[in-house]
C-alpha cells in the first residue's frame, strides 16, 4: 500500500488523541472580530468596541484552557465557546438587518461603504456558522477527538467520508470507518462557504433539526446579502 494511504489510517490526529489545533479557530474568531471593527458606522450594533471587547473576553479563557490543542473541555469552557459563537452570529445578523434597512432606504451618500460592508457581513456569516457547526456537531471538537465513536452524540452532519467505506480502495482508505476520520474546522468552514454560495447543502447533508435550522438561517442571510448587493450594484451602474 502507498505510504500516503497507510498514513491515512495511522497518522490522523484522532488516532493520536491530540485534538485539533487551537490556532485555526482562534484565527477565524479574530478575523470575524476584525471584520466587525471595520464595518461602516451605520452597520454597527452598539458602540464600535463593545462587541469586539466582549468577544475577546470570551476568547482569552478558551485559549488559556487549550492553548495549543483542543483536548480539554469543562462546563465553563463549553458555555464560553458556545457564547462566543452566539455573540458573533447574532451581532452579524444584526448588522445584516441594518444593512438591509440602509440598502432598501437607498443611503446614497455611502453606497460604496455599504457594498464593502455587505462583503464583510457575508464573510462573517461564513465564519460564524462554520464555527457553530464545528462547536455543535457530534458534541464539539473535544468530544470528536477524545471519545470513542460509540460514545459520541448523534451526528448533526453526514460528510462524504462517512459513507465511503464501500467505494474503491483509494477512496475507502480515507473514510470514517477505515481511517477513523472525523471532520475538523476546515471541513465545517467548507460546509459554511458552500451553504452561503449555493444557498443549500451540497456534499454534506444536515441530519438534526438544529443543523437544518442553522443552515436555513445562514442560507437566507447569505441570499439576502447577495440579492441586495446585486440590486445596489445595478442601481449604482445606472
Automatic annotation (TrEMBL):
TM segment ranges: 21-39, 45-67, 79-101, 113-134, 213-234
Presence of keyword Cell membrane: no
Coiled coil: none
Source organism of this protein record: Amycolatopsis heterodermiae
Domain of life: Bacteria
Region (Disordered): 1-21
Keywords: Membrane, Transmembrane, Transmembrane helix
Name by which UniProt lists this protein: DUF1345 domain-containing protein
Keyword Transmembrane helix: yes
Amino acid at each position: 500500500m502507498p505510504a500516503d494511504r497507510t498514513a491515512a489510517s495511522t497518522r490522523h490526529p484522532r488516532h493520536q488523541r491530540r485534538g485539533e489545533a487551537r490556532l485555526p479557530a482562534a484565527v477565524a474568531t479574530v478575523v470575524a472580530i476584525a471584520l466587525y471593527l471595520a464595518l461602516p458606522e451605520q452597520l454597527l450594533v452598539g458602540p464600535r468596541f463593545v462587541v469586539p471587547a466582549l468577544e475577546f473576553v470570551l476568547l482569552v479563557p478558551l485559549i488559556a484552557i487549550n492553548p495549543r490543542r483542543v483536548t480539554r473541555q469543562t462546563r465553563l469552557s463549553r458555555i464560553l465557546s458556545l457564547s462566543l459563537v452566539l455573540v458573533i452570529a447574532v451581532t452579524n445578523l444584526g448588522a445584516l438587518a441594518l444593512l438591509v434597512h440602509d440598502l432598501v432606504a437607498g443611503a446614497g451618500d455611502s453606497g460604496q461603504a455599504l457594498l464593502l460592508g455587505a462583503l464583510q457581513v457575508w464573510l462573517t456569516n461564513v465564519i460564524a456558522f462554520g464555527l457553530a457547526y464545528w462547536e455543535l456537531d457530534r458534541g464539539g471538537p473535544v468530544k470528536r477527538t477524545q471519545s470513542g465513536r460509540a460514545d459520541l452524540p448523534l451526528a448533526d452532519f453526514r460528510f462524504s467520508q462517512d459513507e465511503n467505506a464501500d467505494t474503491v480502495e483509494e477512496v475507502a482508505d480515507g473514510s470514517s470507518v477505515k481511517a477513523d476520520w472525523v471532520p475538523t474546522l476546515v471541513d465545517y468552514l467548507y460546509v459554511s462557504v458552500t451553504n452561503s454560495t449555493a444557498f443549500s447543502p451540497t456534499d454534506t447533508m444536515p441530519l438534526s433539526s438544529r443543523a437544518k435550522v442553522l443552515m436555513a438561517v445562514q442560507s437566507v442571510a447569505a441570499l439576502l446579502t447577495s440579492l441586495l448587493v446585486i440590486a445596489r450594484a445595478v442601481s449604482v451602474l445606472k
